[in-house]
Amino acid sequence: MAHWMDRLASGEQFDTRQWVEILSQYQNETVREALFARARQTAQRYYGNAIYVRGLIEFTNYCKNDCFYCGIRRSNACAQRYRLTKEDILSCCEEGYALGFRTFVLQGGEDGRFTDDAICDIVSAMREGWPDCAITLSIGERSEESYRRLFAAGANRYLLRHETADPEHYARLHPQGLTLEHRKACLYALKRIGYQVGSGFMVGSPYQTLEHLAQDLQFLSQLRPHMVGIGPFIPHRDTPFKDFKAGSLEMTVYLLGILRLMLPGALLPATTALGTISPKGREMGILAGANVVMPNLSPLSVRKKYLLYDNKIATGEEAAEHLAALQRRMQAIGYTIVTDRGDCKPAAKGT
Ligand code: 5AD
């Protein structure tokens, strides 16, 4: 029988038991090396040695939700709340464009102050100011009508992690009122509308089992998103999950390798959380098949306030203004940062 990596690469679906077997080998060096070599080859075939960068603008840390893991949850009275103005956001874009960014990601908590009109106004101004750039939104669950309006205003991409594809596990991570069903409905609506869609999950979140991870992979193979963001769970001191341990670096990069084989043309970021749990985390992610890095373009004055988890890195090479340093790190491992929108390659498009 063919090796699971060949079968995965040829599009075969695995059941939960098969996935658990594959996932349980994550510490086996021989398996890891074979997986990563193959994942790198696949990324190379689709994207060469290009690493795409996205300028991340964290424009509000107000949030109406109370997710148990998240540092900007509503109940966290210690969070210093802020909102950027439209002018602040446009100056981030201006600075980012000059640095070579051609994708801007507007990320924020679910902040009622940012109505459809407000976001559309910002997106239209960005579209007009930087017509050659991609605009990505990461602003949570909204109505299909709202997603349509934002798309019409010029947004192209949307990031919304599913967090966990198991409904019961979902309920242990989120307070009542938030459901996996609704999260999934949002993701399918976004796809229908024509966004390039990113989903993803935390690795090692409290109560997560290998069966849950199996379900995450099964869900992603069904959804076929254009992007998948995964990062280790990292506890935040002012949340109910403060005493849980962080997710594993090894499991996160192993999953990146698997995702590269499963969704060969996908955009896979080596996330900030991965860079936070280990100084070499981002490089390890790229060497396991990731091809995107999302440096922080938020104004320095607010960067430390967008704290989803403890010790989140923000001012080193993950900072947009240190792109040259990031470029050197990428070149040291055989990759190069490109000035490009970095759209998803056809194989994963329209899937
Ligand atoms: N650790 C790691 N990732 C987190 N996120 C939120 N809180 C944490 C945490 N404590 C992730 C979620 C969310 C994304 C923006 O950040 O997956 O979708």
UniProtKB/TrEMBL annotation:
Entry superkingdom: Bacteria
Amino-acid positions noted as binding [4Fe-4S] cluster in the UniProt annotation, renumbered to this chain: 63, 67, 70
Domain Radical SAM core: 49-271
Binding site for S-adenosyl-L-methionine: 163, 183
Cofactor(s) listed in the protein's UniProt record: [4Fe-4S] cluster; [2Fe-2S] cluster
Keyword Disulfide bond found: no
Residues binding (3R)-3-methyl-D-ornithine: 138
Gene Ontology MF term list: 4 iron, 4 sulfur cluster binding; metal ion binding; transferase activity
Note on cofactor: Binds 1 [4Fe-4S] cluster. The cluster is coordinated with 3 cysteines and an exchangeable S-adenosyl-L-methionine.
Membrane-spanning parts: none
Name by which UniProt lists this protein: [FeFe] hydrogenase H-cluster radical SAM maturase HydE
Higher taxonomy: Bacteria, Bacillati, Bacillota, Clostridia, Christensenellales
